[in-house]
């Protein structure tokens, strides 16, 4: 059974590569999600013909090599060649061409499924599916965790750059070649008598075969399954990376964690696979899957404060859906083949592929169009955008009302063209806030932006041909500059209009321009070697709660001592004693401060209060992560709440100018950060003058925005919400369930018979 | 098939031997990320030593730009610079500091007699493609041996008493 599974495994590994890596290969050339989805669905149009024909013929021929093998071997050969070529394609259309040819070859490989099912008896198909699923899971795990994150790497072999993308495709090509050898040398089909053998291919026999009375009812189940499996399609990968900001490696790690758990689960669930009532189990699992999809969407959209799940949450929900998916897969495939006799398996696959692909094409393209349609109705439109900061938290609705009443809209424009939302750099969604993002829909600006992009792409292409530039390139650059100036001028004009209307509402504060307050500080040095930076930072985070005058704890540049800075209170000795006593008990004394090896000195410090748009300590957290942090705290792993101000302080440390920096969230208004910096006496004047700019940058690095009346104004494209694809999945899930119920009723009435299982029982 | 499997296995293993030998014979240290270099398509360089510079550097970057991470580690005598042997296109593999503000550090294994020979053993890119090729070669060789051992015993399909038309 295991050897027979290997070629099928190789095929699914190649599908992993083409399903995941090719999205990013194409993404180099195209951004529009509908176009991306369409390009990825093009092979499905081709497959409508090739898979159907190939499988249909494989029931009706016999060659010295068998009936399924000739197709499979040609397919694997072509697939290997295409996998080697794909990363080398220099242009979008050449890549698409090779992609389509490769899918054509994969279509030729499709008889590997009936070949596999012919080998395995019906009573063991559940177990065989489990074994297959385990191999796939292990391959997916290895690919996503180890390989996929390497996509952007650039390695060098004998001075020749080889990108991770290239290496991924070439490894898949190697696998295809090895599988080709196994098929050619290790698997031999023995002759099977069949009434279909030698049947002439004509339109009549073709349609007649596909619409066989025995097979038609089984297609009902295929339609239901295909509708439910379409999901978000390739847009799922973009949801992770572009919308939620996770890297490809994060995506790979997430899948790897789930995949590792699945390896054990599949083994356990496989034991049950052949013991369940397959149809009943299938229906129940569909309902569970729909419920989980609804739960996930609602959790992300309505419960998470920033609509961005943490990796743990993605793994948790993903794992629940994965278990459901595994069980569904274990019962679905054997369920289908219970209804198909052996000599018609190829014809069934032909018909099923036709039905599957047609449904898939509609659903996958539907996902792309649904996301675009959802964006057109609910998402911020393309056009001029300005972000402002208000004096006090206000609702978006009241700001919009004021803007509409002021006639800021152009003649003929509607209130729907104006989009106002609360804006926070950390992504927090709220009904009211200090930051507001105001957009005005402008189709003409959208057209200009599209033209700018098109010119940029032309310039990139021309640079390949003549790197030093030519007259045409110069002219294009001028045109692009003029168009960009038009967009810039429109944004500025919109900004002026908004400022004029909202003048009374806008803050008068300006990014911490209030001069700093001078303070006296003290620095204690303790002789110490080999303390890790992590321990120091954790100690600082804990000690700050007990000692509000504490500024910072750092290791000296020579790593031979630790320096602790704090505000001079007049009784520094008492402070030192209390701090040392705290260190004796912190984490069972792993970091003890020895006063006998210490020295003290005075230092100059300055304090800035920087108002921020966002709350440095968020008032709302994700419930699951909150629970997880609670559990971690029981075991001594506490995550400090002021993690962002702490990070700001660490980022601002500079050995030559500001060796000690403390940043604190102000608790009185919740919207400002207090920064205390100890300056190196040799550079104090220069350091103070440039420190404010460094603070603004450090805050931005932690997604905290220093307040000023207008933050930015520019043209922005429409913002897509790829999570909307999940809504479509839920809708299609209900449709699929309804179709399955129809099949169930027909089965119960005896209109549909389990002919495959009956044939196997007869042959026993 | 056996020859093919052995050939792939040999190639993969040959790529694995140099880092493996360093792993077993070298000395370990902690390397800190100090510099990120952006190499443009025309060969020009931009160097960044702070996360703020790095963020500015990543604006208007296309996939033809390569980012190189440079680390610093201490041998018994002197500090040494170590450039990660592979670049990343589009964005750097590692930033200069973590989101918490801690410096990014990685374990490094180097030859004490020649610290310019080193590997980053916990970086996947050090092992992954050589490992994948080796595993493909191993599986292919194993399957080939299995087939040779059971040669001339084709996988027989059971006879079908079909009543299908």
In short:
The complex is a heterodimer of chains A (764) and B (165). Chain A has 764 residues and is an alpha+beta fold. Chain A contains 24 helices and 12 strands.
Topology:
The complex is a heterodimer of chains A (764) and B (165).
Chain A (H helix, E strand, L loop, with lengths): L1 H26 L5 H26 L10 H17 L6 H17 L3 H8 L5 H23 L5 E5 L2 E4 H23 L16 H8 L5 H14 L5 H9 L4 H26 L4 H26 L7 H27 L7 H34 L4 E13 H10 L12 E5 L9 E10 L1 H23 L5 H32 L14 E11 L5 H14 L3 E6 L5 E7 L4 H14 L12 E14 L11 H12 L8 H10 L7 E6 L6 E7 L5 H18 L8 E7 L7 H25 L6 H9 L1
Antiparallel strand pairs in A: 1-2, 3-5, 3-12, 4-5, 6-8, 6-9, 7-8, 9-11, 10-11
Chain B lengths: L1 H24 L1 E13 L5 E4 L2 H7 L8 E9 L4 E5 L3 E3 L15 E7 L2 E6 L8 H22 L16
Antiparallel strand pairs in B: 1-2, 1-3, 1-6, 3-4, 3-5, 6-7
What would you note in describing this structure?
Chain A is α+β, with helices and mostly antiparallel strands and 764 residues long. Chain A is 59% helix and 12% strand. Chain A has helices at residues 2-27, 33-58, 69-85, 92-108, 112-119, 125-147, 164-186, 203-210, 216-229, 235-243, 248-273, 278-303, 311-337, 345-378, 396-405, 443-465, 471-502, 533-546, 572-585, 623-634, 643-652, 684-701, 724-748, 755-763, and strands spanning 153-157, 160-163, 383-395, 418-422, 432-441, 517-527, 550-555, 561-567, 598-611, 660-665, 672-678, 710-716. In chain A, the strands form three sheets. In chain A, strands 7-8-6-9-11-10 form a six-stranded antiparallel beta sheet. A four-stranded antiparallel beta sheet of chain A has the order 4-5-3-12. A two-stranded antiparallel sheet of chain A has the order 1-2. In chain A, a hairpin with a 2-residue loop joins strand 1 (153-157) and strand 2 (160-163). Chain A is globular and about 100 Å long. Chain B has three helices and seven strands; from the N terminus they run H-E-E-H-E-E-E-E-E-H. Chain B has helices at 2-25, 51-57, 128-149; strands at residues 27-39, 45-48, 66-74, 79-83, 87-89, 105-111, 114-119. In chain B, strands 1, 2, 3, 4, 5, 6 and 7 form a seven-stranded antiparallel beta sheet that branches. In chain B, helix 1 packs across helix 3. Residues 161-165 of chain B have low confidence and may be disordered. At the A-B interface, helix 1, helix 6, strand 1, helix 7 and helix 18 of A face helix 1, helix 2, strand 5 and helix 3 of B. Strand 1 (153-157) of chain A pairs antiparallel with strand 5 (87-89) of chain B, so a sheet runs across the interface.
């Amino acid at each position: 059974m295991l050897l027979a599974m290997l070629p099928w495994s190789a095929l699914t590994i190649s599908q992993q590569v083409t399903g995941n890596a090719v999205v990013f290969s194409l993404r180099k050339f195209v951004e529009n999600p509908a176009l991306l989805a369409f390009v990825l669905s093009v092979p499905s149009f081709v497959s409508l013909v090739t898979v159907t024909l190939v499988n249909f013929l494989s029931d009706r021929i016999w060659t010295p090599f068998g009936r399924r093998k000739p197709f499979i071997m040609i397919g694997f050969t072509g697939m290997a060649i295409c996998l080697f070529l794909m990363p080398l394609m220099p242009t979008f259309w050449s890549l698409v061409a090779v992609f389509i040819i490769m899918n054509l070859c994969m279509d030729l490989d499709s008889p590997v499924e009936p070949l596999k099912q012919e080998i395995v008896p019906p009573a063991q198909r559940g177990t065989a599916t489990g074994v297959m699923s385990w191999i796939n899971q292990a391959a997916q795990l290895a690919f996503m965790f180890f390989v996929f994150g390497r996509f952007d790497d650039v390695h060098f072999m004998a001075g020749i750059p080889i990108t991770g993308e290239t290496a991924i495709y070439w490894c898949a090509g190697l696998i295809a070649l090895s599988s080709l050898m196994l098929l050619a040398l290790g698997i031999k089909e023995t002759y099977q008598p069949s009434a279909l053998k030698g049947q002439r291919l004509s339109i009549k026999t073709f349609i007649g075969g596909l619409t066989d009375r025995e097979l038609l009812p089984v297609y009902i189940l295929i339609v239901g399954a295909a509708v439910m499996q379409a999901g978000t399609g390739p847009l799922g990968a973009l949801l992770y990376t572009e919308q939620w900001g996770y890297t490809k490696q994060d995506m790979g790690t997430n899948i790897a964690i789930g995949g590792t758990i699945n390896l054990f689960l599949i083994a356990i669930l496989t034991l049950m696979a052949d013991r369940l009532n397959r149809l009943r189990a299938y229906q129940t699992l569909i309902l569970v899957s729909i419920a989980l999809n609804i739960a996930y969407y609602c959790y992300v959209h309505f419960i998470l404060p920033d609509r961005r799940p943490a990796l743990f949450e993605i793994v948790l929900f993903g794992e629940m859906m994965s278990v459901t998916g595994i069980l569904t897969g274990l019962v679905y495939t054997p369920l289908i083949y219970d209804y198909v006799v052996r000599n018609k398996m190829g014809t069934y696959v032909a018909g099923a592929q036709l039905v599957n692909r047609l449904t898939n094409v509609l659903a996958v393209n539907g996902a792309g169009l649904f996301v675009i349609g959802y964006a057109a109705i609910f998402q911020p439109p393309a056009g001029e955008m300005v972000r402002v900061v208000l004096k006090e938290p206000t609702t978006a609705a009241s700001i919009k009302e004021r803007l509409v009443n002021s006639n800021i809209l152009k003649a003929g424009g509607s209130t729907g063209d104006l989009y106002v939302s609360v804006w926070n750099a950390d992504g927090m969604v709220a009904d009211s806030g200090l930051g507001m993002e105001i957009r005005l829909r402008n189709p003409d600006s959208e057209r200009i932006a599209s033209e700018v992009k098109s010119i940029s792409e032309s310039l990139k292409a021309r640079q390949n041909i003549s790197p030093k530039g030519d007259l045409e390139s110069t002219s294009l650059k001028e045109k692009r500059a003029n168009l960009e100036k038009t967009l810039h001028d429109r944004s500025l004009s919109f900004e002026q209009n908004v400022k004029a209307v909202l003048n009374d509402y806008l803050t008068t504060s300006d990014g911490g321009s209030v001069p700093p307050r001078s303070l006296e500080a003290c620095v204690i040095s303790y002789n110490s070697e080999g303390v890790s930076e992590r321990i120091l930072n954790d100690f600082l985070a804990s000690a700050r709660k007990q000692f509000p005058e504490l500024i910072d704890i750092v290791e000296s540049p020579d790593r031979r001592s630790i320096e602790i800075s704090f505000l001079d209170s007049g009784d520094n000795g008492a402070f030192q004693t209390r701090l040392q006593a705290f260190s004796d008990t912190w984490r069972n004394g792993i970091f003890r401060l020895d006063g006998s090896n210490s020295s003290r000195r005075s230092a100059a410090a300055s304090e800035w209060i920087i108002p921020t748009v966002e709350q440095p300590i968020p008032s709302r957290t994700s419930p699951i992560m909150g629970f997880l942090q609670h559990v971690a705290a029981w075991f001594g792993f506490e995550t400090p709440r002021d993690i962002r101000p702490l990070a700001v302080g660490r980022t601002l440390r500079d050995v030559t100018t500001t060796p000690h920096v403390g940043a604190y969230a102000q608790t009185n208004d919740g919207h400002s950060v207090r920064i205390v910096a100890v300056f190196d006496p040799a550079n104090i004047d220069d350091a103070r003058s440039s420190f404010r700019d460094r603070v603004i940058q450090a805050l931005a690095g932690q997604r905290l925005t220093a307040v000023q009346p207008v933050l930015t104004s520019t043209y922005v494209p429409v913002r897509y919400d790829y999570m909307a694809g999940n809504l479509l999945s839920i809708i299609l899930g209900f449709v699929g369930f309804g179709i399955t119920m129809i099949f169930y009723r027909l089965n119960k009435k005896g209109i549909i018979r389990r002919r495959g299982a009956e044939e196997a029982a007869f042959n026993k | 098939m056996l020859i093919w499997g052995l050939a792939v296995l040999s190639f993969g293993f040959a790529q694995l031997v140099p880092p493996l030998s360093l792993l077993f014979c070298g000395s370990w240290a902690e390397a800190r990320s100090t510099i990120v270099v952006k190499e443009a398509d025309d060969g020009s360089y931009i160097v960044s030593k702070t996360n703020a510079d790095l963020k500015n550097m990543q604006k208007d970057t296309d996939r033809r730009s390569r980012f190189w991470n440079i680390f610093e580690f201490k041998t018994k005598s002197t500090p040494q610079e170590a450039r990660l042997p592979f670049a990343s296109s589009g964005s750097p593999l590692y930033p200069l500091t973590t989101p918490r503000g801690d410096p990014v550090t990685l374990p490094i294994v180097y030859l004490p007699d020649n610290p310019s020979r080193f590997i980053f053993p916990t970086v996947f890119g050090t092992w992954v493609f050589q490992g994948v090729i080796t595993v493909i070669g191993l599986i292919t060789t194993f399957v080939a041996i299995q087939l040779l051992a059971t040669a001339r015993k084709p996988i027989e399909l059971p006879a079908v008493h079909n009543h299908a038309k």
